[in-house]
Amino acid sequence: DADAIFKSEAFQRHCSDKDVDLEYASPGDQFFNGKVEHLIGVMKIKMHTVLKASGLGMDYWSEALEYCVYTYNRLPSKANPLNCSPYQMYHGKLPHLGHLRGFGCTCTYWVEGSMSKGTGHDGIFLGYTKQSPRGTYHIAVKGKRKGTRVDSAHVTFDEYQIMPKFVDKTK
Q1: What are the distances in angstroms from CA 7 to CA 1, 83, 134, 155?
Q2: CB-count exposure of residue 107 (10 Å: 0-12, 13-18, 19+)
Q3: What is the mean pLDDT of the segment spanning 75-94?
Q4: Three-class secondary structure of residue 42 per DSSP
Q5: For residues 94 and 76, is the Cβ–Cβ distance under 8 A?
Q6: Are 24 and 2 contacting, i.e. CB atoms less than 8 angstroms apart?
Q7: CA–CA gap between residue 127 and residue 138 (Å, rounded)
Q8: How far apart are CA 50 and CA 123, in angstroms?
Q9: How far is CA 145 from CA 108, 111, 122, 150, in A?
């Protein structure tokens, strides 16, 4: 797809970091790839939805997109035989779902070995790491170190925060 978001420097850097090669379709040829184009559109809508619901800005679009893809791949789909998830179709086993959390919810994390030494640090849940089935989460740091990201297996979440920070401005 030759959409502007896929040609942005941020997206190209993100793909390069993940060792993904980019190939663009010629103008007018996207209809040959209809299913993929539809899925890209669905993921973009989901990404914008979780960003809006969390109250986070477009600075977090790459984390929101990764979160949406990760979650989508673990949910059952009527398009697959026996309503299997894409994860189950690929790996041949049911995905672990106990670690799933709401994007942008507030959380408290501890650096390794510090849980017994007192209070943790405030953060915002941004997604999962490759070790997530074992419970490692990607966190945006709040407070003095705002703007930095950490990965931590020692996290507690505000479980009652269904739609964090969303304010309906249409009323």
Answers
A1: 9, 35, 34, 35
A2: buried
A3: 90
A4: helix
A5: no
A6: yes
A7: 5
A8: 17
A9: 14, 14, 10, 11
pLDDT tens per residue, range 28-82: 666 666 777 788 889 999 999 999 988 888 989 999 999 999 999 998 988 888 9
Three-state DSSP state, 20: coil
Residues 6+ apart with CB under 8 A from 32: 25
- The pTM (predicted TM-score) of the whole model is 0.74
Single-letter amino acid code for the residue at 18: K
Tokens 């894409």 correspond to 86
Q: Which two tokens stand for residue 145?
A: 């170190």
Nearest to 103 by CA among 151, 142, 68: 68
Cα 99 to Cα 128: distance, rounded to the nearest angstrom = 9
Q: Whose CA is closest to 123, among 89, 94, 158? A: 158
Q: 60-66: long-range contacts at Cβ-Cβ below 8 A with a sequence spacing of 24 or more?
A: 60/104, 60/126, 60/140, 62/10, 62/11, 62/14, 63/103, 63/126, 63/127, 63/138, 63/140, 64/103, 64/126, 66/127, 66/128
Output the CA torsion 154→86→67→103 (10° steps).
Answer: -70
